[in-house]
Amino acid sequence: MNTMPRTLYFVRHGQSLSNAGGLTMEDAEVPLTETGLTQANALAERLPVTPSAVFASPYLRTRDTAMPYARQVGIDILLDHALHEFRNIDADLLQGMTGIERRPIALAFWEGSDPHRRMGPRAETFAEFDARVQTFIAGTLPRLSDRSVLFGHGRWIGLLIWKLSGGDTHGAVGMRAFWNYACTLPMPNTAVYRFTESHQGGGWNIAGP
């Protein structure tokens, strides 16, 4: 049981090939661009220098963003599969497409607001994504030590913030409400969100970039 308020840091990965509009590839294997690598190195200089633990999703772009920081502070990266990004469209359905070509398909998914829609056999539904983040909130979040730093993905961090702020995620209305919120949430590459636990317990004060 934690008796003192904790501060946690959630970090979005650096610019990836997908962010830069490159051709579709397997989501877990999308690399950082040269810009993303530069961002990762710069990030290592502005993050807290005394973390208690460093976590990352298993995706390549996230691990490579965390690596310069982990090396600087001398802590091994712990991979957490719960942190991986929302895989709402199976990459096999997008083969050969650029970012411009992918965008209307992704927008149609969100505008359809069907939390149980599965776009391909390896895709995740919004309902499953929501349940995964809820499991993290209920099981992992209470156990994280003060000054933990977690490297993840924009949509994942956005849903975490939305849920901890009391946002609705149920049904079509909740899915649409989250999407509208996510479109306005500042989430540049290497964005850092600081979560400070309320002194009263049971809540978080969240500060963004």
Structure summary:
This protein is of the alpha/beta class and 209 residues long.
Structural features, described:
- With 209 residues, the protein is α/β, with parallel strands linked by helices.
- The protein has one domain (14-207): 3-Layer(aba) Sandwich (Rossmann fold), CATH 3.40.50.1240.
- Helix content is 38%, strand content 13%.
- The protein is built from six helices and six strands; from the N terminus they run E-H-E-H-E-H-H-E-H-H-E-E.
- It has a six-stranded mixed β-sheet with strand order 3-2-4-1-5-6, sandwiched between helices.
- Strand 2 (53-56), helix 2 (60-73) and strand 3 (77-79) form a beta-alpha-beta unit.
- Helix 1 (34-46) runs parallel beside helix 2 (60-73).
- The longest helix has 15 residues, at 126-140.
- The radius of gyration is 17 Å and the shape is globular.
- The model has no long low-confidence stretch (mean pLDDT 95).
